[in-house]
Amino acid sequence: MKIVVREFSRERDLEEVEQVERSCEVGPASKISLFTHLLGDPLCRIRHSPAFLMLVAELVEEVEENGRKLERRRIVGMIRGCIKTITCGTKYPRNFRSYPTVSQKPVPIYTKVAYILGLRISPSNRRMGIASKLVNKMEEWFIKNGVEYSYLATESENEASVKLFNHKCGYSKFRTPSILVQPVFAHRAKVSKRVTILKLTPHEAEIIYRRKFSTTEFFPRDIDSILNNKLNLGTFIAVPRDAHAPINWSGPEKFLSNPPESWAILSVWNCNDVWRLEVRGASRMGKGLAKTSRIMDRVFPFLKIPSFPELFRPFGIHFLYGLGGEGPKAIEMVKSLCGFAHNLAQQHGCSVVATEVGRDDPIKTGVPHWKKLSCDEDLWCIKRLGEDYSDGFVGDWTKSSPGLSIFVDPREF
User: Fold this and answer.
1) Which of 14, 65, 243, 367 has the lowest tally of Cβ within 10 angstroms?
2) DSSP assignment, residue 307?
3) Is the separation of the CB atoms in 221 and 86 below 8 Å?
4) pLDDT at residue number 394
5) Do residues 312 and 288 lie in contact, with contact meaning Cβ atoms separated by under 8 Å?
6) E-assigned strands of 250-358?
7) 321: DSSP letter
8) How far apart are CA 317 and CA 180, in angstroms?
9) Helix, strand, coil shares, percent, the chain, to 5
10) Cα(121)–Cα(129) distance, integer angstroms
11) What is the pLDDT of residues 153-173, one digit of tens each?
C-alpha cells in the first residue's frame, strides 16, 4: 500500500473527489455544522486566481484477482492552492532622504504569496500522513513558482488543522481578522437619506483602490483583474448627499483631489454563482422557529422583524470586500453601504452577506452582523518558504506586527 500525490484531472477524478468531499461533510448528528456545495466544480474557489493547482492523494493497494496481482487506486484526499502578488509592507521612495521636506507618501512593497485551502482527507484514511504529503507537495509547487510565503486560514478551535500546520508543517499564527455575517431579511435594509451611493466603473474603482488602499496588508497587485471579473457585481462609494450627485460625478481623480469630509467604499463579490453553503444538524424546532420568523417578516415587512433566513438548504452569499473610508462620518457611510449591499443580495436571492476585516479595524463597528453567525477571530497562519525577499525593508514578514486593516481577496473567501 502506498500514497501517490498527483494533479487533479476533472475527467478521471471528479466523481471520486465529490465522494471524498461528501464524506468529510458528515459531522456529529448532535451539532450544527456548515457545509460547502461546490456546484460540480472542485476548482471553483481557486480558478479566478492568477495561478492555481489542485492535488489529489491516491491510495494504491495491491490486490489479487483470479491469481493475478492488480493495483487498485482510489482518491482519499485533496488540497488546493493559488499564487498571487500582494502588499506585505511599505517604504518611502528612494529620493525621500534627498528631499525630506517634500511631502511623500509610503509606497507598497509587494511579495509573491501562496494560499492553501480546501484540504480534505477521507475520514477512514486519516492519521496516515496523507495531509502532510499533500501540503509538502503543494509547497514544492509554490517554491518552484517563486513563492516567498505560504498562508492559510483555519478555525482556532480546529485542533487537528492547527496541529497539522503549526506543529508538523512549520506554520505559525500570523493574523486574526474577523468574519462578519449578516442574514438577508425579507424586508429592505435602511439606507440613510443623508448619504448618496454611486456605482463606479472597474477602472474608476481601481484608481481609488490603488491610490488609497495599495499600502494595506494583503492588497492584491492584480486588483484590476478582480474588479473586472464577472463575479464582481460592482464597487460603490458613499458620500454626503449632494456632495457628489451622480450628474456631477467628474471621475476619481477630481474626487481624490478634493474629497468630501467623509466617504466610504466597498465592492460586492457574487459567491452565489460559484459555491453555496448549507447548515445541517439543526433541530426540527429550530427550523420551525426560523420559518415562522421569515413568514412574519414577509407578511409584516414594516415591522422590520430580524428574521432568520433559509439556511437549512443550499444558500447563496454575497461577499463584501475592499471596505474603507475616511472622515468623521465614515462609519455612517459604511452602514449605508452595507444596507445597500443587503438589498442587492435580496434582489439576487442570497440569504447571507458576509465580509472579513481586521479585528481592530474601526470600520468593523459600521458593519451590521449577527454575532452567532460571525467569527471574531479567524486564524491565519503563515510560513516563510523563500530565503530571498522582495525588499530588504520588510525583513521576515512572518515576524511583523499586524496593522489595523487587512485586504481580503474575495477570490479566496
Assistant:
1) 65
2) P
3) yes
4) 59
5) no
6) 263-270, 276-280, 317-326, 352-357
7) E
8) 12
9) 30, 35, 35
10) 10
11) 988 888 888 888 998 999 999
* Cβ 268 vs Cβ 344: under 8 Å: yes
**What HEC string does 231-266 produce?**
CEEEEEEEEECCCCCHHHCCCHHHHHHCCCCCEEEE
* Count helices and strands in the chain by DSSP H and E runs: 8, 15
pLDDT (0 to 100) of residue 98: 52
Higher pLDDT, 144 or 244: 144
Say how far apart CA 264 and CA 258 lie, in whole Å: 15
What's the order of all strands across the beta sheet hosting 232-240?
A: 178-183, 352-357, 317-326, 263-270, 232-240, 195-200
**Three-state secondary structure call for residue 177:** coil
pTM of the entire structure? Answer: 0.89
Report the DSSP beta bridge partners of residue 194.
none
CA angle 237/242/367 to nearest 5° reads 35
Give me the residues paired with residue 276 across strands: 37
- In the block, cell 463606479 appears at 200
Say which DSSP state 402 is in: P
Max avg pLDDT among 89-93, 106-110, 337-341, 384-388 = 337-341
Q: Looking at this protein, which amino acid is placed at residue 134?
A: L
pLDDT recorded at residue 342: 96
Summarised one tens digit per residue, pLDDT across range 343-362 is 999 999 999 999 999 999 99
